[in-house]
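Forum > Structural Biology > Help requests

Title: Can anyone predict the 3D structure of Phosphoribosylformylglycinamidine cyclo-ligase?

Hi all, first post here. I have the sequence for Phosphoribosylformylglycinamidine cyclo-ligase but no way to get a structure on my laptop. I'd be grateful if someone could post the structure tokens.
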Amino acid sequence: MSETSYEAAGVDIAAGDRAVDLMKAHLAKARRAEVVHDASGFAGLFDASALKKYDRPLLATSTDGVGTKVDLARRLGVYDTIGHDLVGMVVDDLVVCGAEPLFMTDYIACGKVVPERIAAIVAGVAEGCALAGCALVGGETAEHPGLLEPDEFDLAGAGTGVVEAGRVLGPERVVPGDVVLGLASSGIHSNGYSLVRHILRTTDLTLETVLPELGRSLGEELLTPTRIYAKDCLALAEAAEVHAYAHITGGGLAANLARSLPSTCDAVLERSSWTPPPIFAALESYGRVPREEMDKTFNQGVGMAAVVAAPAADAALRLLAEHGLPAWVLGEVVPGSGTVSIA
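Reply #1:
Sure, ran it for you. Structure tokens for Phosphoribosylformylglycinamidine cyclo-ligase below:
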């Protein structure tokens, strides 16, 4: 009878070590001055003395994944954008309360460690962290043979941020008369991909299909990285009277914006104020998806909403334009009971 080993069980420790070596080249771009080197590599260290500048610093934390978008990345063999998506999902939740993202960790589970694939994923995470201004201080890659197929993987991340207690944004600041701004998404972002995959299974569409309205293959369009708003939203909150943000993820625009309203206010949004990117109309048409279902599944072209004091709206739009972020007046806040309508 032959001897049993970890490698025989499907775990390749050498491949894991090579993956770590390959990803090191990407980590330098995702650093902050407060990161302290931990020689053991078992933990990430962050110098908390940087928080002394705050009167009452509140730590904010968020965790998320990328959902079934990873399946499309796997099928297309494109791995350098999915990590970028992960960062967007985490840091743009943090910034909703006004928190500056400080650092992130990631977790990748796979059926088989392919060092180049893992390094590409982490490269995307590092690139996203650089765009968000936060550090990638650690992570974990786990090989799960027998549980996941060799080409299958999933990833998740957690982030920590900080906000001054007196500057926390949210529903308690929102009042009737406030203006709701829409901040454009880069596309579908990282929500609704189970419906996308259902449409691919039940229509003639494939990832290789080139739709005239898109000007490229459907697969390329669907893997467009999630827009990362963190720096833009922090700059806006510093320069203008922002009362609340809403990150438009699962549940769509109405459900997510409602989370940032008090029970005494409604938001009335004008559908005619924006035109969603063509991918949304394509999915609605080819998949025969009712508009109501589209609205509650996808961001429909609005990746983040900002609720600002009316006198600050014009200045806010100018600042966002200077940052290269398309934005517009989406609607207004009126007395009500905490609901959102899109007319």
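The chain has eleven helices and 14 strands. The first helix runs from residue 13 to 27.
Shout if anything looks off.
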